[in-house]
Amino acid sequence: MTSDGMTSDSRPDRSGGPAGQAWGTTALRLRYPGILALDDVSVTVIPGEVTAVVGGDGAGKTSLLRCLAGVLRPAAGEVRRPPKSRIGFLSASSGIYPDLTVAENLAFRATAYGLRGEPASRRAADLTEQAGLADARDRLAANLSGGMRQKLGVIAALLHHPELLILDEPTTGVDPVSRSGLWWLIASAAADGSAVILATTYLDDAQRAARVLVLDEGCPLASGTPEQIAQAMPGSVRSVSVRPAGPAADRAWRRGTGWRVWDPDGTEPSDGTPVEPDLQDAVVVAALARQSQREPRESVPGRLIQPASERARAASPRQAGPLVESVAVSCRFGSVTAVADVSIAVRAGEIVGLLGANGAGKTTLIRMLLGLIPPTSGEVRLLGQPPSRETRRRIGYVPQGLGLYDDLTAAENMTFAEAVFGGRAASRQAEDVLAGTSGRAGLPVGQLPLGLQRRVAFAQALAHRPDVLILDEPTSGVDPLGRTRLWQTIAEAVETGAGALVSTHYMEEAQECDRLVIMADGIVVATGTAEQIIGDAQVTVVEAADWTAAFSTLKRAGLPVSLAGRGLRVPGVSPAEVLRALPSGCQVHTEPATLEERFFDLLRAPGTEAVPA
């Protein structure tokens, strides 16, 4: 059953149909052949707010959004939405025509929405300017970066002032700078009165939303504001320095450089420190609770590497000095300097995070460290010597594209890796990875869920007991619990003496690293722990009865305002300056900056002296 609100002019009635009505679903069920894709899913999307739907690949996020958009018809339940002409929709593929220019894509979409003449041209020009795409108006969409394509997709969906804006994973796979720009567009749409719902796999995206729905295999795990979800978490959580033994190990997960343990009955054993759970803790606990109710044996994924004691006995002697090192390396392509005078080192027993926007030089640096391209100047050492075929055999590499053969099974992929690297027991490891997933062992990897594909890629990279792990966006698209398990795998490898270099776009994951290296414009602008890099940096926080009015005012003033639930944060601007720009009745105060906010400070001032490690 569906109910469509009706309006008559080209600009939507912001009331959402009847006064105060919100859009959404109630008790939604959707079936595909042999699969229950959505089971009793309800979500509310309110004008002037952002709602986030969180879950990994296969959780049901896209199915829910497509039902809400009217693309799919559910088997049961109610869908409340405005007329389709009042809906803006961004698919996971961005919905942009690669062989049209930016301007042509917008003109085509405007025609589809029935927008013509000067108003349509002015709206397209305004949105293009806001998205930072004015200089790319005549560029083919195929030649845009991933972040620019996503921005183009969002403004195309915004052309007709939609009453309901539906965005399917708008920030997945884009760098932090593009992600910030996308969130600015999303907040602007909500401030303009649109009801916004978006899908994401990342909880730091969800923290920005006013409301959150967490899905797992089509079932709702939690819903409400981030604060409500955290407060409703059953039991208690404590922080410990090492993973506990016994049954508690199944209820433990990596968090930062330590561990969290969930105690379902709320009792707090003597070991560990009680912590106030946040959204990330609550979502992981909800996933653990569902797994334990469904099938206790599946509560922990199959082991990806040997126990530390066994692996330590089997491993070869470890490198005494840095495992991977660059000394004042530079790389130039013609007149373009991609990397300039960069020195980094990865030692045994540590996880080093490599952060930076697209074009910062991260990929070029990694390719030099692997010996795939030579440095123009400087020196690269891999396991104490120049990179070679022999030293590369001691690397475990997980590229963003996973590096698996889609038409081979997991065991066949592992057998191939065994032949290449000379690893042992690779096929048995693949069987361990697939433990508890009956009926999938014979499937080609391309037909497995993304989270399981990533576990296979990790197992393949670890099968030959590498000395060095190099991981590019290793957990993209994985659900929150699966992500903690993959980081657990990285930590276990490092605990036995390996070193890991991890490139990531997400600050939530940067907290899992022992040390960070931040690059901008080909140089290193900061190194150290997350706490060292943040230092005493502060951010101005705005408290306003009407966040939309305050956001619009700060936006017109040209201040770098960002949305966090129903609150606003203005990094790099003093409280006095923010207060002068705000309407009366608003209050401001300062809070410690986040790593992401400090990251943008560093990007705005390349050449900043590195923080000492």
Record keyword descriptors for this entry.
globular; six-stranded mixed sheet; 27 strands; Rossmann fold; 613 residues
What fraction of the residues are assigned to beta strands by DSSP? 25-35%
CATH topology value of the largest domain: Rossmann fold
Largest sheet: 6 strands, mixed
Strand line-up in the sheet with most strands: 6-7-8-4-9-10
Q: Which stretches are low in confidence, meaning pLDDT under 50 for 5 or more residues running?
A: 5-20, 296-316, 606-613
From the N-terminal CA to the C-terminal CA, the straight-line distance is 59 Å
- List the domain count as a whole number: 4
- CATH homologous superfamily label of the largest domain: P-loop containing nucleotide triphosphate hydrolases
Global geometry: globular
Give the CATH level 1 class of the largest domain.
Answer: Alpha Beta
Give the overall average pLDDT: 82
Q: Tell me what the CATH architecture of the largest domain is.
A: 3-Layer(aba) Sandwich
| Number of discrete helical segments | 20
Describe the protein's topology:
Blueprint lengths: L1 E3 L18 E10 L2 E11 L4 E5 L6 H9 L6 E6 L5 E4 L11 H11 L4 H14 L15 H13 L5 E5 L7 H16 L3 E6 L2 H4 L4 E6 L2 E6 L1 H6 L4 E5 L11 E4 L2 E6 L9 E3 L3 H16 L13 H7 L9 E10 L2 E11 L4 E5 L6 H8 L7 E6 L6 H4 L2 E4 L11 H12 L4 H8 L16 H13 L5 E5 L7 H16 L3 E5 L3 H4 L4 E6 L2 E6 L1 H5 L3 E6 L3 H10 L5 E3 L2 E5 L3 H7 L5 E6 L2 H10 L9
Parallel strand pairs: 1-5, 4-8, 4-9, 6-7, 7-8, 17-21, 17-22, 19-20, 20-21
Antiparallel strand pairs: 2-3, 2-5, 9-10, 11-13, 11-14, 12-13, 15-16, 15-18, 22-23, 24-26, 24-27, 25-26
